[in-house]
């Protein structure tokens, strides 16, 4: 039996992971499940999968969690330190599916104990790519990408010589506002930004898809994970979301990964790697689909894409600043403090203001320095948003 843990078990990726694991209970011994506010779901899954420990991120929910697990023999715990402790428990395979920068520390802990880390939490690579890749190397641990585009690139590279790769093309559906005018986007509400045409995902990543911040994070994630130069990375709008990525080789060949927009493919690929096993996803009927469409992204409507390349060019702590400012700006948008287009403006202003502090930008990358930078960038984002409100 393989020992597995799922961080962010109550979310969209976490629930899809549980769906796959619960189909084959004989094969998995579940160590830790973690969640946030949805303790009812956490309790149901911890009992069903007979986890050793269930952890909520929020200490004020510990009493409820403990009461609900009473008599089950499952440990209850709460808070960020308890999540880190759960990540240090030996496991063969760990799903990193907490949303946001909170996913970084437990991912590092899992790598330190040598687990294979299935990485859905793209923010880990964006904020601290060299730290997370370096930790994996130092502890001989493996990271497998779960983001669909990166899983697609990873699959396209199997058996290939990376030196022969010229381009990595990741696709974008275009999100909720792909056919909206800039004027309409400026007025968009959180409810409008929270519905995705093709994928069923958590609210934050769905809004990030509408602003293309999700794709911007993925451009950075591609560079950090595959170690390629950022000018090899292209974004292509593909409204059908069936081709997830393409790898372009020096002989002109483009290898495309095609599949239904169902995260259980990428999750299952990481779960079964290095084997392929049968997965419960739709088999595409291409004759019925008939055609695929492509276009270049509109860089004026989606400044996040330009910012991603600027962040990669500048390097250092800029990824951590970019992500933290983006997370805070998204909070601001959800709370009605700023408009949809002001999210990118906030992030750009924070990057510009913090760029003068070269000591901070070029500091040695540790969990502490990344956390401090993250904290400061959130404060700067709040300042920028407050300036607009006065
Ligand atoms: P969800 O919002 O659906 O789930 C997030 C999970 O994190 C939940 O379990 C949530 O708990 C938990 N959580 C929330 N806040 C905290 C916190 N402060 N500390 C610890 N745990 C917390 O997100 P998704 O599943 O959509 O996304 C998860 C990650 O995977 C993100 O990084 C996203 O970018 C990435 N990803 C997602 C894809 C998708 O298809 N959904 C595709 C590719 C990548 P609770 O709900 O109980 O409050
Ligand atoms: Mg993706």
UniProtKB/TrEMBL annotation:
Q: In which pathway does it act?
A: Isoprenoid biosynthesis; isopentenyl diphosphate biosynthesis via DXP pathway; isopentenyl diphosphate from 1-deoxy-D-xylulose 5-phosphate: step 1/6
The EC number(s) given in the record are: 1.1.1.267
Its EC top class is oxidoreductase
UniProt: NADPH binding residues: 10-13, 36-38, 121, 123, 202
Q: Which UniProt keywords apply?
A: Isomerase, Isoprene biosynthesis, Magnesium, Manganese, Metal-binding, NADP, Oxidoreductase
Q: Cross-referenced Gene3D superfamilies, in alphabetical order? A: 1.10.1740.10, NAD(P)-binding Rossmann-like Domain
Protein origin, superkingdom: Bacteria
**Reactions performed catalytically:** 2-C-methyl-D-erythritol 4-phosphate + NADP(+) = 1-deoxy-D-xylulose 5-phosphate + NADPH + H(+)
Please explain the role this protein plays, according to its UniProt record.
Catalyzes the NADPH-dependent rearrangement and reduction of 1-deoxy-D-xylulose-5-phosphate (DXP) to 2-C-methyl-D-erythritol 4-phosphate (MEP).
Q: Give the protein name, as stated in the record.
A: 1-deoxy-D-xylulose 5-phosphate reductoisomerase
**Lineage, broadest ranks:** Bacteria, Pseudomonadati, Pseudomonadota, Alphaproteobacteria, Rhodobacterales
* Gene this chain is encoded by: dxr
């Amino acid at each position: 039996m393989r020992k597995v843990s799922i961080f962010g078990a109550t979310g969209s990726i976490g629930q899809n992971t549980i769906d796959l694991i619960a189909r084959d209970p004989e094969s998995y011994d579940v160590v830790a499940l973690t969640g946030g506010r949805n303790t009812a779901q956490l309790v149901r899954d911890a009992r069903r999968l007979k986890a050793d420990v269930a952890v909520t991120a929020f200490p004020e929910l510990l009493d409820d969690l403990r009461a609900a697990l009473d008599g089950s023999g499952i440990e209850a715990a709460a808070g960020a330190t308890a999540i880190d402790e759960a990540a240090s428990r030996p496991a063969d395979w760990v799903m990193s599916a907490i949303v946001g920068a909170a996913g970084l520390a437990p991912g590092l802990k899992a790598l330190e104990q040598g687990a294979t880390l299935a990485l859905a939490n793209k923010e880990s690579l964006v904020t601290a790519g060299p730290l997370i890749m370096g930790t994996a190397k130092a502890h001989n641990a493996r990271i497998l990408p779960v983001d669909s585009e990166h899983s697609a690139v990873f699959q396209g590279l199997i058996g290939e010589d990376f030196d022969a790769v010229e381009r990595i093309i990741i696709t974008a559906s275009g999100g909720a506002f792909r056919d909206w005018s800039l004027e309409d986007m400026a007025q968009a509400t959180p409810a409008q930004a929270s519905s995705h045409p093709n994928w069923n995902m958590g609210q934050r990543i769905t809004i990030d898809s509408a602003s293309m911040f999700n794709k911007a994070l993925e451009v950075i994630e591609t560079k950090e994970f595959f170690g390629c130069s950022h000018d090899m990375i292209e974004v292509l709008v593909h409204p059908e979301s069936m081709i997830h990525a393409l790898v372009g080789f020096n002989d002109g060949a483009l290898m495309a990964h095609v599949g239904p927009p169902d995260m259980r493919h990428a999750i299952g690929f990481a779960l079964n790697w290095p084997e392929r096993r049968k997965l419960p996803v739709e088999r595409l009927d291409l004759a019925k689909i008939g055609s695929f469409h492509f276009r270049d992204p509109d860089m004026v409507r989606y400044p996040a894409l330009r910012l991603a390349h600027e962040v990669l060019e500048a390097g250092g702590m800029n990824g951590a600043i970019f992500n933290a400012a983006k997370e805070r700006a998204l909070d601001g948008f959800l709370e009605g403090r700023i408009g949809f287009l002001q999210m990118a403006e906030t992030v750009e202003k924070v990057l510009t203001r913090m760029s003068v502090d070269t000591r901070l930008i070029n500091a040695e990358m540790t969990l502490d320095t990344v956390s401090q930078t993250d904290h400061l960038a959130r404060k700067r984002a709040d300042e920028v948003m407050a300036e607009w409100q006065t």
